[in-house]
Structures are given as structure tokens and as C-alpha cells.
# Entry
Amino acid sequence: MSRYSRITGTGSYLPPRQVTNADLVTQLAAKGIETSDDWIVERSGISARHFAADGVFSSDLALEACKSALQAAHRQPQDIDLLIVATSTPDMVFPSTACILQAKLGASGGAAFDVQAVCSGFVYALTVADALIKSGTARCALVVGAEIFSRILDFNDRSTCVLFGDGAGAVVLEASEVPGILSSDLHADGKYADILCVPGHVSGGAVSGSPLLQMAGQSVFKLAVGVLEDAARAVLEKAGKTDADINWLIPHQANIRIMQSTAKKLKLPMNKVIVTVGQHGNTSAASIPLALDYGVRSGQVLPGQTLLLEGVGGGFTWGAVLLNF
Ligand code: ACO
# Structure
């Protein structure tokens, strides 16, 4: 009998502090940096984002998202034999955020590790978990995206600091006789590493290089639109499906204009796209599971529907997962 993996529960968490565009306009104006709600909304679709409080780490946001996903799946932490956290803002250099989260969950013994693929991290992590379940190595996984990007933003750079936010999303992925994940497609092209990066590292007790995010926005935008269409076509072809089979496109929430052009290329109306960027900002690896959970809890994403998840981000990395929910 074939063995597949299937999502049995979703969860998400946003830190309580909401930062609106008006808040950022005021904060930046105090430093003599000009921006406006109109500019941010028009160029990105973002109106607000959430920032974590001092002393809160990615594993703390992940913990809340996981509790909610476990409850939705009717699972206990002890049932988890695989825990993967996609993050670019880990709690510390090591151990992994997944190991720290495992202890906070009280779920010891299973495999736990982080995946670093920036905004494509959740799609990468879901694909790895699917493969480990299909191979029989794992049976019940938690796959998490968790980020605190507010800590790596340069608040003197108006072209990036208005775009990102903090949050976490999680799914429980379990072995199943019925197909859930239908196909995946993952890619990277490291020669574009410098168009989106945080080029610092810890060395000799100090940070060497810059610990803040740098982005060549227009280069990222152009690359993103092209590769997202390719990844979508690849997963559809692998699964023997067409654009018409997609009930929901749940893309990485970086910029409404990237989502609109991807939907157009796939001939999907925007009412088939889950959009949370307006209230969440770009939460990197957390954005897809946050959007998925929002879709589920708002009653839009229903069991049995076909979902196309797509991520793109620093690396340069990109990928897609097609699944039956
Ligand atoms: N407020 C007001 N003006 C601004 C701001 C701001 N916050 N930021 C930039 N500007 C100005 C610029 O200085 C520039 O002024 P100039 O013409 O006088 O030089 C003007 O606005 C236009 O700037 P552009 O960079 O050309 O604006 P663009 O339309 O390209 O939008 C944006 C910028 C939103 C960053 C866009 O390029 C984008 O979304 N890129 C993709 C980002 C993305 O998808 N990232 C995903 C991956 S994230 C990850 O992996 C971590």
C-alpha cells in the first residue's frame, strides 16, 4: 500500500503588538526619513505588520502556532516524531530553533532541525517532511515557519523596513493512505545571493559584517515573478493537474503585486488567492503557513480542496507544493 503525507491541522500566531504604516511614518519621521501610508500600500499592499516584544524569540511564536496546530489535528506533543522549523531568524547560532521548540513543547525524542531557505523555507521544510514520511522515517511531523524579522531590519532604510513583520505558522503532517501532498518542486540559484541577504556572521565574540537585511527590491521582484510561474507549472505537471484544478493559491506574502502577476499568469482570479500581506507584512518563512491557517480558520480553505503553496526568497530560492487539503 502506498504511503503519503497529509496535513491534519494548521495553526498560527502573531505577536500582539501591531505596527501600522502610520506608526512607521511617525517613527521614521523622527529620524528625518520620509515615507507614507500611500507609498507603502501602493508598492506592496501592506497596511500593518506585527512586531515581537523584546525577549521573545522565534521559538516562542512557533510554540503558540504549534499548540494551535496540534489541537486542530487532535494530536499531543508526544505524537510528534519529526519537528522542522523553517527560519532565518533563529533564537541562537545553535542549537537549532527546532530543538529549543521541541523542549518548550515537551516533545522529546523525535528528530528536530531547522531549514534555512529564507522566504521559501516553509515550502522546503514541507517537502523534506513529506519525503521523510513517505520513506517511513517519520510518521507524524510538525512543520513550522517562524520569524522575527523586525530584529534584522535596518530602520534607516525605508525601502526595506516597511515591508517585513514577525509571526509563526505551523502544520501537522501525518502519514496517510490517501494522498495529501501531490507534488513538490524546489530550486535555488546561489549566484543571486547578494540581491537579498543579511551578510553578517558571528566571529571572535562579535558580529562581523552587517547583521541587517539588504535587498535590491526591483531585481528580487523581476526574478520572483518568473520563477513562481515556472514552479507552479512544474508541480501541476508532476501531479497531472492543470490551472483549473487549483482551488486556492497560497503564495509567499511578500508583495501584493507579485501575487497579482503570478495569479494572472496562472489565469486565477484574485478571489482564489489567499492574501494576508496587508495585515501581516512579509513574515518570510512564516508567511505561507500563516496564510494557510488564516484561510482555514476563516472558512475559505476546505477539506478536499487542491492548494498550491509557493515560496520565493533569499538565496535565491524558490519552490512550490501542490496538495489535497
Ligand atoms: N517610502 C517612500 N518612498 C520610498 C520608500 C518608502 N518606504 N522606499 C523607497 N522609496 C522611493 C525610492 O527611494 C525611489 O525613489 P527615487 O525614484 O527618487 O529614487 C522610489 O521610491 C521608487 O523605488 P523603487 O525601489 O523603484 O520602488 P519599487 O516600485 O520597485 O518598490 C519594493 C519597491 C516594494 C521593494 C519592490 O521592489 C518589491 O516589492 N520588491 C520585491 C520584494 C520581495 O518580494 N521580496 C521577497 C523576498 S523577501 C525574502 O526572501 C526575505
